[in-house]
Here is the input.
Amino acid sequence: MRTMSTTETIVTQLLEEIKKIPKNKNQLQIVALTGSGISKGSGIPTFRGKDGLWKNYNAMDLATPQAFKRNPQLVWEWYAWRIGLILDKEPNPAHYSLTKLEEARLLKWLITQNVDSLHYRADSKNIIEVHGNIFRAKCEKCGVKIMLDKAPTEPPMCACGNMLRPDVVWFGESLDQVIITKAYEVISNECDILLVIGTSGLVYPVADFPFIAKDRGAFIIEFNLDDTPISHIADFVIHGKSEETLAKFVDELLEIID
Ligand SMILES: [Zn+2]
Here is the structure.
């Protein structure tokens, strides 16, 4: 592992590594894996620790199937507050740099743990949201999903008469099988370079992704404020705010790789 505080030398060294990959630029497959750290620069709280407090409840007491069963009104009130908060914020240069990389046909997939939809708002296309999307609600009875464009003032109801729930993965729930299978496929078979951005490396099964990619021969570059449990297997670790480091890295990469 080589830890750097700037991206200058990394891009040059990365290009040397890319040359070793027996593919030309058009076949090179870059995958990004993002976590809450990428949205920090947009002012989105992480909902862990003191960030997660709302009316003296913490996220662990609200983001569970039990909490929703007990008091759906309260849970929706919390989600409405969060949706309003997110709508007030904008994607930051880190989100936009991944869009640029995708438009340059270098980024193949973007796997995110975030539910804030900021990658969509930054116009990224091939997004795999492993933990759902806070702007989507689903009916557990009939399976219908709807998008919310603003914070609901009342818990949204399904046409079938059932109350919808936020389409996010709550504590204690398993991930959507179809989505997680797709993510495993991408990580295992379509990834020459994995950019791991702002993820703690603690939430499973996503925390395993960099290890799987590494086993399959991918080159791993981590962008984070600090070291994480992933850092020791990363080929490069770039410390700093991703809205600065990733944006600079992508600009330099696009400039040289053309
Ligand atoms: Zn329904």
In short: The first strand starts at residue 2 and ends at 4. The chain has a mean pLDDT of 90. The CA atoms of residues 196 and 222 lie 5 Å apart.
